[in-house]
Amino acid sequence: MQVCVYLLLVLHAADGCSLAENQKTDYITAYTGDSVLLPCSCTDPHTKPESFTWQKYNTRRQTWDVITSESEQYSNRVQLGTAHSPGKLSLLISHLTEEDKGAYICYLTNQQYKYIRLTIKGCSLAENQKTDYITAYTGDSVLLPCSCIDPHAKPESFTWQKYNTRRQTWDVITSESEQYRNRVQMGTAHSPGNLSLLISHLTEEDKGAYSCNLTKKKYKYIRLTIKG
Ligand SMILES: *[C@@H]1O[C@H](CO)[C@@H](O)[C@H](O)[C@H]1NC(C)=O
Ligand SMILES: *[C@@H]1O[C@H](CO)[C@@H](O)[C@H](O)[C@H]1NC(C)=O
C-alpha cells in the first residue's frame, strides 16, 4: 500500500512539470544597467512544479544562495515567473551590475534543474583618464564628448562635474544646477553608452575643468576655453 502511494506521488510530480532543457546550461551575455531574462520553463506551459527556486553560486562562500526579492543584492531588481503562465519559471533581473555575473540555477528537484552562466559587460570608457582641450564661443553650444567604447554598454551610474576654483570642489552638474538650468543635456536615449554633455548658450563662466565621472578609475577630463 505504501509503495503504491509513493509511486502515485512520483507520477504526480512527474506530471507537474517536465523541465525544458533539463540539466543543460545556457550562456547569456548582458550589459550593466540593462535587464536580462534567465529562461526556465516547463515543456507544457500549463503545468507547474510543486516548488522551485532560483539560486546563485556564491564564489566566496562556495554555496548556492537562494534568490528572493528580499535578498540584499537583488532587492527590488528581480521578478519571478509570470502570473498568466505558471509554467514559465524565468527570472527577470533589472538594473544589472557587474556583481550579477556568475552561475545561476533554476532548481526544481535533484533530477530537474537548469544552469545559466551570466556574463556582464560593463562600460569601458573611451579615452579613460585622458584630458580633452576644447574651445568654444559665448552664445554657442559645445559638446563635451564622453562615451563607452561599446555603444550598447551603459555605466551603472555616472555624473558630470565641474571644478569650482573658488571653493576648490568638484560640483555635480544637473539641469537643475543654478548655473546650468535648462542649458545642459546629458547622454542620448538611443545610445546608452554616449554620456556626452551638451551645453548651450555658453557664457564666460562656463570655462574651466569638467569631469565625466563613472568610478574612481573611470573618468575623463575636459578643459573648456571660452572665447568672447
Ligand atoms: C554622442 O551624442 C552626440 C549628440 O547626440 C553626438 O553628436 C556624438 O557624435 C555622439 N558620440 C558618439 C561617440 O556616438
Ligand atoms: C567619481 O565617482 C566615484 C563614484 O561615484 C567617486 O568615488 C569619486 O570620488 C568621484 N571622483 C571625483 C573626482 O569626484
TrEMBL record:
Keyword Cytoplasm among record annotations: no
SMART domains: IG (SM00409), IGc2 (SM00408), IGv (SM00406)
Residue ranges constituting the Ig-like domain according to the UniProt record: 33-117, 139-223
Entry's transmembrane regions: none
Leader sequence residues: 1-16
Superkingdom per UniProt: Eukaryota
Its membrane topology: Single-pass type I membrane protein
UniProt GO cellular component terms: external side of plasma membrane
Record keyword GTP-binding present: no
Keywords from the UniProt entry: Cell membrane, Disulfide bond, Glycoprotein, Immunoglobulin domain, Membrane, Receptor, Signal, Transmembrane, Transmembrane helix
InterPro entries associated with the record: Ig-like_dom (IPR007110), Ig-like_dom_sf (IPR036179), Ig-like_fold (IPR013783), Ig_sub (IPR003599), Ig_sub2 (IPR003598), Ig_V-set (IPR013106), T-cell_Activation_Regulation (IPR051713)
Subcellular localization(s) per the UniProt record: Cell membrane
PROSITE patterns listed in its UniProt record: IG_LIKE
GO terms, biological process: cell surface receptor signaling pathway; cellular response to lipopolysaccharide; immune response; negative regulation of T cell proliferation; positive regulation of T cell proliferation; T cell costimulation
PANTHER family: BUTYROPHILIN SUBFAMILY 2 MEMBER A2-LIKE-RELATED (PTHR25466:SF14), T-LYMPHOCYTE ACTIVATION ANTIGEN (PTHR25466)
Protein's UniProt name: Ig-like domain-containing protein
Species the sequence originates in: Electrophorus electricus
